[in-house]
Amino acid sequence: MPARPPFRLDVDLGQPGRAAADGIFPEPVAAKVPEITFLFWVIKVLTTCGGEAVSDYLALGNRPVGAVVETGLLVIALVWQFRTRRYAAAAYWSLAYAIAIFGTGVSDALHLFVGIPYAGTTLLWSVVLALVFWLWYRSEGTLSIHSIITRRREAYYWAVVFATFALGTALGDFTATVLGLGYLASGIMFFGIILIPAVFWWRFGLNEVAAFWFAYVVTRPLGASFADYLGRPRSLSGLGLGSGRIAVIVTIVVAVLVGYLAVTRRDIQRPADRGPDRGADGGADGGADPRAGRPGGAGPRMSPR
Questions:
Q1: Which stretches of the chain score pLDDT less than 50?
Q2: Torsion of the alpha carbons at 242, 245, 247 and 249, rounded to the nearest 10
Q3: DSSP states of 164-230 as a string?
Q4: pTM of structure
Q5: What pLDDT does 112 receive?
Q6: How confident is the model at residue 299, as a pLDDT?
Q7: Which of 157, 192, 201, 249 has its CA 20 to 30 A from that of 143?
Q8: What is the DSSP letter of 300?
């Protein structure tokens, strides 16, 4: 039997529409995400912490205005990131931070205004995340972040990022309030959980793509739990430092670290590392490289280090 072609979510815009899309959001010429280093994880946790704090602070005032601010930040960061043709630290982390803020707001809104309990929002975002992963893998044959060298793959990547932020917000609130652990105990618990994929990758050969996404998902409730612990009042098991103060401090630290990466370029994926894509099962990607017109070769293997 002939091999079934990979599932795609392409929309046929025709030549004029495709030309217009390429003019606004051009196809990448290099990887659009950073290399995975220790500093990547530090900044990732900080953005989750800052996103929680910023969203909570905006919610203290006029909620519609806060929602507009969150949406505006997201749109600006999305346009900036998708207009770049290769990874740029400032654009990438601006979008990650904006999604952290917006994802927190959306997840909280489903609980506060729609009335879905934390267990329900946790389940909902788990299903959304699994669905996006399934669509991504079915379409591209890989979930490796080293394969993010097309506009379509980048769209899948950021959809996953959004789902992980929303899921992490719901999960952190679920463990802290519904399970009664409180924010500090939840943060410590998630810190222990995030070590699991690292240990299993290091000692037992856990697939590196699976290990990455396992850890990536857990960074959200980890950072959000500590943000809530620092910012929430003592009556809610926090330290009472205030969400606004935590948001400012974390944002400054993130800006300094991202500025360092932008100057040193230490997290740029090296073209010399390019090799066959690796799918979620660790096998070679059978998809075609849209630029080279040959099987595989769409990006370097994922090697967290």
A1: 11, 13, 272-305
A2: -140
A3: HHHHHHHHHHIIIIIS--HHHHHHHHHHHHHHHHHHHHHHH---HHHHHHHHHHHHHHHHHHHHHHH
A4: 0.81
A5: 87
A6: 36
A7: 192
A8: P
